[in-house]
Structure to design on (558 residues):
């Protein structure tokens, strides 16, 4: 071996020693595999281009939902500029890596014989989860479905990306009660749903009921919503007067049962927590807590039951969620495959999720104005679920779906499904199914050369118009001139100025328009233009482009 070769070998040994020393002592370790779509971003920057003829608008006053066709790594990169920390819930159903050639890595199907099968999957998932995490609000949730093939790897990966302390739970969903007849050992009938929080101290589940039988018990309603009456007395052996004397006290009720108080009054009935057989039990709260809750009009109700005066309280609609879901509605054959076939008129997509499984997890994790992202959109079940929930509760949730067009899934499955459930369709029984309403815009990923030349910055600025409209949620065109453009929604405007010399003309154009403006001004550098707009600083929020976008991309693609 030559001296030069020995020196080279020693350098490699030193490098490996350093790398091993720096490696974490606990956690998931695998051989990172390069990915073409990621490497591509060193030379090309992703942007979005709208496909105008696929727009669906049923109500201009409602929010706009987005469908993005393209590799989800590129779509997530764009969303890192337009939606950083704006997403409330991310729900994904990624490739399960079964070894059955059901997903591609670098344009090649990955099969069970590939010795780097798990490394490729982990590399693929980690890059996307890291981008996705940046999109979540602090109170947001990340939800991922998986089967046994990658469950352990996914759990470790999510612990690494989101933090083990932010692990909310793992839910077993029985989606195929019959199981698989050809299984050698256990017949798999379940999948798993990982739920992580961006920050578990901020995230909260909603007080909703997803179990139909439980839901039926909430049979009363007031201005605050559904409730049922429950006896205010605790009647368990460990909650007796002897064990908890502070929870034993009299409650006074007027003769007409309208007034309930802890203050002793003439002609008021005195009520203690005593069972029908004379056992002295306790009330559910201390006296001071009773007083606090009694300030809510109608929270406590006095009624005669079996000839005895009883105190009841309103128990609001809520449910303790179990981590095993067995509802028949979660069966993917009937509420996934057959439902999709009924919508599209033919069996064109394998293994879609049950619509109800997706609806229920979104009911738990979203509110009426949440933004929901699915970057493995597949047949579009998540979008369908969002539209149905909005229809049921009058909400304004918005979805963003991302999918590639492998096997024409975007144009032949996802988009047609969304269009039909929005505007209505005829099912296989020739019945008319009314549309759910909603608005949808369709985008495809496009690219601009990444080399930071003046010419490329100009090209990027021209091509990010759609991205800026998405960022601001302003899609209605107000003014379209060569040097500047103005867009709006119901309460906000976006201005895009391509030439600094047009600032004066732009200001004249918006002078009499009432409302707030987000204004983007082209600059080869990173000028703020505050001086030019100092007379409008209460009306205008300024940003320079494309530098604001390039900063995001430099961080992602470093």
């Amino acid at each position: 071996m030559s001296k030069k070769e020995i020196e080279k070998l020693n350098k490699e040994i030193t490098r490996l020693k350093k790398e091993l020393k720096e490696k974490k002592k606990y956690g998931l370790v695998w051989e990172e595999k390069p990915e073409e779509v990621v490497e591509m971003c060193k030379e090309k920057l992703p942007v979005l281009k709208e496909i105008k003829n696929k727009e669906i608008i049923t109500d201009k006053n409602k929010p706009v939902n987005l469908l993005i066709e393209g590799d989800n790594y590129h779509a997530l990169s764009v969303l890192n500029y337009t939606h950083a920390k704006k997403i409330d819930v991310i729900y994904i159903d990624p490739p399960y890596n079964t070894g059955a050639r059901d997903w591609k890595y670098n344009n090649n199907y990955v099969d069970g014989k590939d010795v780097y099968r798990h490394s490729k999957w982990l590399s693929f998932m980690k890059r996307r989860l890291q981008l996705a995490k940046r999109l979540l609000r602090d109170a947001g949730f990340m939800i991922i479905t998986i089967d046994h093939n990658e469950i352990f790897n996914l759990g470790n990966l999510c612990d690494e990306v989101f933090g083990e302390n932010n692990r909310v739970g793992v839910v077993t969903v029985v989606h195929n009660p019959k199981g698989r007849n050809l299984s050698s050992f256990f017949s798999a009938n379940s999948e798993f749903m990982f739920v992580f929080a961006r920050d578990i101290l901020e995230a909260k589940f909603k007080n909703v009921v997803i179990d139909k039988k439980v839901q039926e018990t909430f049979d009363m309603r007031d201005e605050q919503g559904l409730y049922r009456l429950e006896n205010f007395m605790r009647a368990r052996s460990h909650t007796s007067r002897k064990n908890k004397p502070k929870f034993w006290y009299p409650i006074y009720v007027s003769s007409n049962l309208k007034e309930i108080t802890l203050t002793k009054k003439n002609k008021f009935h005195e009520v203690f927590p005593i069972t029908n057989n004379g056992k002295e039990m306790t009330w559910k709260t201390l006296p001071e807590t009773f007083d606090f809750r009694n300030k809510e009009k109608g929270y406590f109700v006095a009624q005669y039951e079996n000839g005895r005066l009883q105190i009841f309280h309103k128990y609001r609609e809520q449910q303790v969620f179990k981590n095993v879901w067995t509802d028949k509605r979660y069966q993917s054959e009937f509420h996934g495959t057959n439902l999709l076939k009924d919508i599209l008129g033919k069996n064109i997509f394998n293994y879609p999720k049950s619509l109800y499984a997706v609806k229920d997890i979104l009911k738990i994790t979203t509110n009426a104005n949440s933004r929901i992202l699915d970057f493995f959109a597949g047949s579009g079940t998540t979008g369908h679920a969002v539209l149905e929930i909005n229809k049921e509760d009058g909400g304004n949730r918005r979805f963003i779906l991302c999918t590639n067009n492998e096997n024409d899934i975007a144009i032949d499955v996802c988009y047609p499904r969304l269009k039909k459930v929005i505007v209505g369709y005829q099912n296989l029984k020739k019945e008319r199914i009314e549309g759910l309403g909603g608005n949808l815009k369709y985008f495809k990923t496009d690219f601009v050369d990444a080399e930071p030349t003046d010419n490329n910055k100009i090209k990027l600025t021209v091509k990010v118009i759609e991205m800026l409209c998405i960022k601001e949620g302003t899609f209605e065109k107000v003014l379209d001139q060569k040097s500047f453009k103005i867009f709006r929604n119901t309460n906000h405007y976006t201005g895009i100025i391509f030439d600094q010399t047009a600032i004066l003309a732009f200001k004249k154009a918006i002078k009499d328009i009432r409302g707030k403006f987000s204004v983007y001004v082209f600059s080869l550098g990173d000028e703020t233009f505050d001086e030019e707009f100092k007379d409008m600083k209460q009306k205008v929020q300024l940003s320079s482009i494309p530098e604001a976008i390039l900063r995001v991309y430099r961080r992602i693609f470093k």
The chain has three domains: 46-209+321-444, 220-316, 448-556. The CA atoms of residues 358 and 385 lie 6 Å apart.
